[in-house]
Amino acid sequence: MRKPVLLTFTIGLAVSFVLAQREQPPSTAALAEITARGRLLAEYDGAAWHATDAVQAMKPAAGSVTRFVARKTDRGWSVVFGRFDDQRTRFLIAYEATQGARPEEFSVQAYEPPQADTGFYFTAALAVETVLADFRGEKRPYNIAVLPAGSGQLYVYVVPAQTEYGVFPLGGDVRYLVSPDGSDIVAKRRMHQTIIEFTTPPEMQKVETGYHIAVLDDIPEDTDVFHVLVRTPSVPEWIVTPQYVYRIDPDGTIHYVMTKEGFMKIKDK
Description:
Structural class: alpha+beta
Order of helices and strands: EHEEEEHEEEEEEEHEEEH
Distance between the termini: 40 Å
Strand content: 35-45%
Strand order of the largest sheet: 1-6-7-9-10
Largest sheet: 5 strands, antiparallel
Helix content: 10-25%
């Protein structure tokens, strides 16, 4: 099971949405950008999962860890665990988990006293706090991921956490674009309206593909790619938007298939 990481949270209330329609399907390059973000999101999730297991095994002192942030480097993923100082001007890193030769392998360095960071990790942790002050979702656990965006800005994703073995949630998620200093929300994108769940079928039942209908926009979302990459079994996902049809392969590659009108004509034959 992909366990919820240390810092999941539960809050209530749904948000409204506005349908975005496009005059034409996105370019191959635009779809590739969505794939790239979705793959990074899946890597972040895996790094947070395994790093959290490694840090929990060290039995952190109460209050020493209230937030974690992951960052991909040339050597792999680094995940730091800590808290803000009393003035909220520094992020105090109590543990740093560094990825090894395998994606699930993490070694942990404990810092006593904690290392004070005012750079990326501080800014990313502050961006998470900024987003949590705005986000409203269902009464269930959520996970958070922070990825770099252009011009020094940050993407902060709020995604429903998996809480049951073999059940993979999709939807009810939001992507925020946050200012370089982590203090302001520049843009907010609701990626899916409601939460649906893909349940791993019994071994005797063969599943060839997944399928869902999207209502908020005419393009796949970063978390659609993430969903395909982390669920089991590993199968493609077909997405029908108000105007278009797409397929996401098990490796996260997105393909534009046809218009929804053409798809419905084939489906109804």
